[in-house]
Hints:
By secondary structure, this protein is α+β, with helices and mostly antiparallel strands.
Amino acid sequence: MAVDDKNISYRIYLVAVFIFLMAIGIVVKLTNIQWVEGDYYRKLAKQRTVKNFVIPANKGNIYSADGSLLATSIPNYEIRFDAVTPKTEVFEKNVKLLSDSLSFVLGRPSGYYQNELRKARANKNRYFLIARKLSYTDYMKIKGFPLFNLGAYKGGIIVEQETVREHPIGKIAERTIGYDKGGVNGESMGKGIEWAFRKYLNGKDGKILKQKIAKGQWKPIRDVNEVDPQDGYDVISTIDVFIQDIAHHALLKQVEDYQADHGCVVVMETETGHVKAISNLGRADDGSYYETTNYAIAESHEPGSTFKLVDLMAILEDKVADTSTVYDTNGGTIKYYGRSVNDSHRGGYGKVSLARGFELSSNTVMAQAVYDNYKSNPSKFVNHINGYGLNKRLGLPFEGEGRPYIPQPGDKHWSGVSLPWMAFGYGVSVTPLQTLTYYNSVANNGVMVKPQFVSEIKEWNRTIKKFDVEVLNPKVCSQETVKKLKAVLANVVKKGTGSKLYSKDFSMAGKTGTVKVNYGKGDKGNFYYASSFVGYFPADHPKYSCIVVVHKPNTSKNNYYGADVAGPVFKRIAQKIFTDAPSANTIKKIDGKISKQENNYNAYYTQVQKKQSIPDVKGMAGMDAIALLENLGLKVKVNGIGKVKNQSLQAGQNIAKNTIIVLELS
Length: 666
């Protein structure tokens, strides 16, 4: 018995010692947590229950050159309700008044809101949704309603803000305006002006402190932000909405008529390089057209006959031949190293001058002129091309600018046919905007300016930064050469390959181009045609230069040439800009069927010209109404987008110049 008692005593002592050691361990651990690691755990707890959330800053706006809003940031607000926060007497006192107020703004019956609010309180819902996508005005109204006006701690209101980017006038120049958004793994990504000028547009983000509540949801701790967001600056683009609208619809009509794969058009101000319009349309699977790729900037391809101006400029500058030098087209075919150079006109053109060969876009004439004069020293010719800047990118601020290719003598790809092939625009690669920049230098009397898409950065009315004209080359050639080049470019339209486009009403100058793409893959359907026209207008005093390129037009009618496909787009743009009421014959010749909108515009303008009174523009597209009224000497202010709903001056009133008329659009 004594032995058993002794064993029991040992066990009790052992258990007591173990408990004592455990107690010491617990005390040590608690002490360690409280004093040694206390700061760490307190910080961890706070991080898991309270943390800062980023409030994205409102981006600056993007405006067109004429003041139209192209892109803007609009704050959207979401209102929720923490049904647990208000005291019972406060809730009961205000719930009916709150429900009546919500019904007035949001539209549902008062009884609906009262039932939902009471249900949320019964279920202890701390994140009950009141409304989404509210404007700032509605948000401020709801914030002042009974109960909610007591704030987050007493009234239970929860406000969340989201900034949304909108394009008020639709998809105009959408690909050039671009976007800036979060990409994969949190990386930013974007295109166009939005991305290139993000450091000005984006502003500085703010911070708001939130506390974690039930079901992984977060509630703002106070009504004020920890750090208020700072809005970005406004960007003033060079785009002119009126010209953009003309260019876009002219291109759209043509790609639809020819069921083309894609096309682009750029209109640039000659002296400044300001891009007034740019449209890039690609065909979707359903046959409709969208701005998916900025072809004018990104697509580098063989230009074809529009490259022949390079030949003529180099030849005239070096004085190795003149515009009067005669060449034999040899029946329309000439061979170099066993490969044929052919004219599009069977049988050739007989013996013609260099100028006439250019006007007729003779491949054989231009190939002979280049090969005969530079075969012993091809670097001399290629150096001219390099001097014009066609061997390097323009250095635009946008992502994805196409890389040009000009073969250089001595390179592994240089061969005996490189020189004659370059003469008619094959074996080289440039972007449409590069070609336009080069032609614009001729229109600008030899001064090559860099294309610009943004003219100014502003904060309200204060200029932050102004982008001056950037000269890439002050003198691409002599004035004597410029004068001769202008003459032959004007003759291309008057009596050359662009003669279908000639009009006695206004002058144009330019060059047609037709190139067979993927020709090296054989004649089994792999190739297609790209049609182009590039030039400037008016021909005598150029104000705008323009390029049109249409890829893969339907060839069933066998009229895939630049003058047939791209030329009419160029003419329509020049016509709409510089003539207020084109003749019916001219319009029919260019466009065939005229849209109802355009008929209305021309009829209105003719009527108003005779009567000199305010027209009734209700129902007209906003763009057409603005152009019509401004041409009559009125100052136009616009509210909204779409078609004209109301006008401040009634139809029939006498016109007084500089009178302000306000249009309300639907």
